[in-house]
Amino acid sequence: MARDETMSPRYAAGLGARRGVAAEALVELVQKVAAQHGAPLSRVTLCTLDSKAEEAGFHEAARTLGVELVFLPLAALKARKGSAPTHSPRVQAMFGVGSVAEAAALVGAGPGARLLAPRVSTPYAACALAISAEEEE
Hints:
Helices cover 34% and strands 23% of the residues. The chain is α/β, with parallel strands linked by helices. The protein has a five-stranded mixed sheet with strand order 3-2-1-5-4. α1 (23-36) crosses α2.
């Protein structure tokens, strides 16, 4: 049976960012990380904390990239925090996870997802990339 291409994203780009981040900063970072790991943008979903739902930069970045944007509850990220290889004491103190980007990528890609790219950080944002477990079967 053919896999339904809309069932789940092949890749999830987890994003963490400072308040008020510009869309351009997110777009450039996602493009860079996706390109480095051979992830076509048409198969990437942007994932971040639900507390960023009012941030215009995230919405604009998703529109610019032509991808879906998913907001995730902090509890879901905390459930996957042990799978994140990097750790920021500042982010840990603020959110209870060492890397919002890595945890969001893993949650966004679904159960059994594997991190392809640990977080890549700029002064304004961080991006990590995970692949869905179904893609590796």
